[in-house]
Amino acid sequence: MTRKNKTGVFTGTMIGLTMAISSVTYADNHPIRISYIEPLSGPFANVGDAGLKHFRFTAEQINKEGGILGRNVEIVAMDNKQSPSESVQLIQRSVDQGINFVTQGNGSNVAGAMVEAVDRNNRRNADNKVLYLNYAAVDPALTNERCSFYHFRFDANSAIKLEALANYMKDQEEINKLFLINQDYSHGQFISNHMKTLIDEKDMDVEVVGDVLHPIAQVRDFAPYVARIQQSGADTVVTGNWGNDLSLLVRAIDSAGLDVDIYTYYGGGLGTPAAIGARGEDKVYQVTEWHADVNVDEGLEEYEQWFVDFKERYPEIDWYYHRVYNQMYMLKDAIEQVGNAEDVDAIAYALEGMQFESPTGTVTMRAKDHQALQPLYISVMDADAKYDADNSGVGFRTVANIPVEQATDETSCNMKRP
Asked: Which family does it belong to (predicted)?
């Protein structure tokens, strides 16, 4: 009996030890996976596909450099069909597959549902937590009243972008009559409301002659909206539209022969430059953390090669999301600082307050609300740019550099930490 008990204890210990060693070996050899939850079908499929190519290209570069802790990075594509409920289900699928990181950016309505789902999972499932890395959903609420310890935003939020645009626009004497047109959900609604607030706060000599919200991803013909712009007498349009909702709007403005300047968040790629071409020169503006000719203007030869290599890999699109570069390398730094890709809480703490030296300058992940603060650029279409956008023959030139000190805002976040 004594011998049997000792053997049993020894055997049990060996089994436990073997399982522990196997677990470590599996973790050491298994790729670090990131679920990419975006529309890969439907009206915004082109946007989802472009983002996927950005993430996979960046993962490939990291893997060529030795990966993270010696492990490869794998991007797992999941089609959310631009649906908040579908996205929540895909978070659960990620959890079921043992994936600790999810990323998304298209649609702040989707992002809000994902924040709630991630928080709910992490409260209930302490042994299988998820970190949500947001590369493009810009509703300020996500880092204010809806902020979460497990959510990090790597794009400038809408308040920051609109502040930058307003500061530039207030000095443009040709802007007198402004027309606002946006998608009817939290992102577009914020722009509609906040732009009018900024006009008053900055004492801009500008009249808002139109303010329209339209259904997201449902308008096929923007001609009736353009007719309203024309009837208003507007000389300037401000829009936060993205994807086909922006491309179709710009094309309709061009087709109508409307002579207006168009200030956008997302006019630099993903179909919009191709929709208007050279006729957009000195007319279509954007506010971004990067554009291709920044490399030329500021001598970023190494990052210029990154852009060129991406274009050679994917000739049909351009390197557009510089924040994907920032996000992936900041995640890499955080995981390597922790020394463990499975400890989500520790990785989140490592990201908090991180200062990352990006090619365009220092990016700081503000600890209070997990909002990335970074330099921004306002640029306008220019046929003389070194690099064109969307193979359109027209690129962008910088008209305003926004230092990081001015690319910021206040936050009301009262974050609960584990």
From this structure: Belongs to the leucine-binding protein family.
